[in-house]
C-alpha cells in the first residue's frame, strides 16, 4: 500500500507540474549492456526505460553509459527525439556514448559537438589518472515556440581517477566561466562525485547552480546511485543537473521498482524548469 501511495504521489506531481512546466530535463545513467547483470541486464529493462521517457514527456535527456546497440534501440523506439553523440573510444561508434536526446517537435538543433576530458580534448583520449576515456557531448538548441537559445552539456566523469575528476571540473569551468551570459545553460550527467567533494564544488564556482539545492519542490531520494540494490536507503548523490538563466520548479528522483529491479543502477533525475 505504501509503494502504491508513493507512486500515486509521484504521478500527481508529474501531472500537476507538466501543465505549468516550460522545460523538463533529465539526466539518466542507463547502465551499459552487460549480460553479467542477471535480471538487471539491459534486455530486461529497455522497454521500461523507453516507457519512462515517454510517460514523463521529457524535453531534453542526457544519458550515460550508452553503447551503440543501445543507441540503435533507443533511436528506433523514441521517434519523436533527435539523438546527438558519439562513442568515446573513437569519436564514432566504439565505446560508451553520453548522448543527448531532445524533442524535435519543440527544439531545433543549431550546433553540436563533443570533447574529451583530458589534456587533448579535441581527440579521443584518456585524461590524467582516469581509467577510461571520458567524453562530453553538447548541443545548442533553439526553442521553436519562444526562439530562446539553450546550451546543454552532458558529462560522465571517471570513476577511478581523483585527479581526473578534479581536472575535468576545471576544464568544464574554464569553458563555461564568463560564457553564455544571457543564454539558458544546462550541465548534467554522472559526475561520480558527492556534493561535499571539492571537485564538484568547482561547477557552482563557475556560475552554475545545483538544481537539487534550488528547486521549489524536491521529491524522491536524495541519493541517485542504487547499484541495483532494491530498497537501499542511503545512496550517494552523484548525478547532477546544473543550470544558468533558468528557474527550477520541481526536482524529482524516480526510484520506481518494476519487475523486481530499478530502471538502472542509477536513478533518473528530472528537473522541471520555468
TrEMBL record:
<dbReference type="InterPro" id="IPR005135">
    <property type="entry name" value="Endo/exonuclease/phosphatase"/>
</dbReference>
<feature type="domain" description="Endonuclease/exonuclease/phosphatase">
    <location>
        <begin position="26"/>
        <end position="266"/>
    </location>
</feature>
<dbReference type="InterPro" id="IPR036691">
    <property type="entry name" value="Endo/exonu/phosph_ase_sf"/>
</dbReference>
<dbReference type="Pfam" id="PF03372">
    <property type="entry name" value="Exo_endo_phos"/>
</dbReference>
<dbReference type="GO" id="GO:0004519">
    <property type="term" value="F:endonuclease activity"/>
</dbReference>
<keyword id="KW-0255">Endonuclease</keyword>
<keyword id="KW-0732">Signal</keyword>
<protein>
    <submittedName>
        <fullName>Endonuclease/exonuclease/phosphatase</fullName>
    </submittedName>
</protein>
<keyword id="KW-0540">Nuclease</keyword>
<dbReference type="GO" id="GO:0000175">
    <property type="term" value="F:3'-5'-RNA exonuclease activity"/>
</dbReference>
<keyword id="KW-0378">Hydrolase</keyword>
<dbReference type="InterPro" id="IPR050410">
    <property type="entry name" value="CCR4/nocturin_mRNA_transcr"/>
</dbReference>
<feature type="signal peptide">
    <location>
        <begin position="1"/>
        <end position="19"/>
    </location>
</feature>
<keyword id="KW-0269">Exonuclease</keyword>
Amino acid at each position: 500500500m505504501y509503494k502504491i501511495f508513493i507512486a500515486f504521489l509521484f504521478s500527481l506531481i508529474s501531472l500537476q507540474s507538466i501543465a505549468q512546466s516550460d522545460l523538463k530535463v533529465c539526466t539518466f545513467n542507463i547502465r551499459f549492456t552487460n549480460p553479467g547483470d542477471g535480471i538487471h541486464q539491459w534486455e530486461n529493462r529497455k522497454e521500461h526505460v523507453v516507457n519512462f521517457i515517454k510517460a514523463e514527456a521529457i524535453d531534453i535527456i542526457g544519458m550515460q553509459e550508452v553503447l551503440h546497440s543501445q543507441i540503435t534501440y533507443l533511436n528506433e523506439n523514441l521517434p519523436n527525439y533527435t539523438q546527438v553523440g558519439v562513442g568515446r573510444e573513437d569519436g564514432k561508434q566504439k565505446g560508451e556514448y553520453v548522448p543527448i536526446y531532445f524533442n524535435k517537435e519543440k527544439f531545433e538543433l543549431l550546433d553540436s559537438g563533443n570533447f574529451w576530458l583530458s589534456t587533448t580534448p579535441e581527440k579521443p583520449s584518456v585524461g590524467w589518472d582516469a581509467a577510461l576515456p571520458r567524453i562530453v557531448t553538447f548541443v545548442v538548441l533553439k526553442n521553436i515556440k519562444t526562439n530562446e537559445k539553450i546550451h546543454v552539456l552532458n558529462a560522465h566523469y571517471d570513476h577511478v581517477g581523483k585527479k581526473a575528476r578534479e581536472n575535468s571540473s576545471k576544464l568544464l569551468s574554464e569553458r563555461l566561466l564568463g560564457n553564455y551570459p544571457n543564454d539558458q545553460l544546462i550541465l548534467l550527467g554522472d559526475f561520480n562525485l558527492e556534493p561535499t567533494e571539492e571537485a564538484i564544488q568547482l561547477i557552482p564556482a563557475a556560475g552554475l547552480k545545483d538544481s537539487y539545492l534550488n528547486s521549489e519542490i524536491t521529491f524522491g531520494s536524495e541519493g541517485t546511485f542504487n547499484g541495483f540494490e532494491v530498497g537501499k536507503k542511503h545512496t550517494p548523490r552523484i548525478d547532477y543537473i546544473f543550470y544558468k538563466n533558468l528557474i527550477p520548479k520541481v526536482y524529482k528522483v524516480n526510484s520506481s521498482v518494476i519487475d523486481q529491479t530499478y530502471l538502472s543502477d542509477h536513478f533518473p533525475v528530472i528537473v522541471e524548469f520555468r
